User: Fold this.
Amino acid sequence: MPAPGSISDLTLIYGAGSFLMSADRMIKIIILCAMFFSAIVQASTWKDDILYFVMLDRFADGDSTNNQDVDLNNTLAFHGGDLKGLREHLGEIKELGATAIWITPIVQQITHPIGNEEGPFHPHHGYWANDFTQIDPRYGSEQDLNDLVKAAHGLGMKVILDIVYNHVGYGADWEKEKPQWLRAGEQCGGSAVTLCLSGLPDLRTELPEVRQYLFDAHIGLAERTGIDGFRLDTVMHVEHDFWQAHRAEVRKKLGKDFLLLGEVWGADKFTARPYFQDDEMDAIFDFTFSDHILGYLNGLGSAKRLGRYLSRRHDVAAGHLLAPFLSNHDMPTLLAMLRGDVDRYLLAATLLFSVEGMPVITWGEEVGRTGKAWPYNREDMAWRDPAVKPNASWKRNEFIRAKYKALINLRHSNTDLRGHLSSVAYADKDVLALKRGEKTLLLINRSDHGVNWPPELGNSDHWRLAFSSGSDAATSDMISALEARIYIKEHY
Ligand SMILES: [Ca+2]
Ligand SMILES: [Ca+2]
Assistant:
């Protein structure tokens, strides 16, 4: 099912009324179309979305004139990716089937690199702000963000900006201009909220004037550009009443559908509870999901244990979401964590797109992007066309991408895979059959040998195979070594 507001919808609407049309009427229809898309983007619910995460500097360079401190041979330097490059390559994300894009922070960064044992470390990642009211020219301009949001909305995709409320960058101007707004040096506290994370100056977010300044900067940008949500950084390092005030301000200025997705390191449904209960966040990243999946795939926990976890992992307050992911920019790439094993990679992907919540794909994960632990986990997007810069890691696995695409398409068309009902139909040490909803079955074999259809599942003739992670056309009742399948019930 195409995402709402796709190009094909536009063609249908425009085409239906395009005969006998004056220029004025055409303009009116185009405006109506734009309002229609905007309404659809606003009305769609986040629980059905698939989020694609882009580290902007590492994605696509659309404007070489804004490049500064670019060194493609240094993973700690800038690589030139920007808002214009992302806009020019939205088709890559749309075609994969993702419906929303999360972009690393774009506010103005400190201008100097930090000395690091691996060489000068530039703020290419966007988490070392100098001025929250300006967009860093290395990423582009506010007009570029406007253009990106319009283009994404035109394709039926939402845009989420990454916002850091906890700290500023090392040596940011505020250390001299507004020292009373920061905790630095000896003022750094010992609690999660008052510590200086990685030695970064901590914002005194308890002060009303600091809050208002930050709200005006970030919420103001969202109001002007029409973005659809914030991904909130280092949430556990800012006090709860800040998040409650923030939620109220966001609701007032940006409406009820504006997404607040929080990063609480290590979070699961239990850690998420206070943020949902007190209406601080709409969604929280589900860190325990990748732990459980990688544990199972690396032979640590049994399929039985995984099944127990999967049946209960998403018990959260109504209207709130956990966002599962397999890897992110603070972890080694998925390929590294699975020691290059593509079969296990696809088992992990099958699980990601078969559970409740908003799945997150980290840039290049869908093409098997390489790179081990930090800083080599933040390599460039691998493009099909090597002329697209920065493209340093050009290896691209189209087989993995085709499987991601098939899984995403299936998820869009199958409400069971997105739904809440989840129960173990069969489990032993290696094999798990997880029933999703009334009509969908996920069957996974972690072992190094084929297994027969478990008789506990009843007659296999009642189930139609909708997906296999394997490379051969799966037709028999023998599930291959390291294969995942999704079946849909057709006969009762
Ligand atoms: Ca650039
Ligand atoms: Ca803090």
About this structure: The first strand starts at residue 51 and ends at 54. The pocket of calcium ion (ligand 1) is lined by residues 61, 63-64, 66-67, 80, 82 (CB under 6 Å).
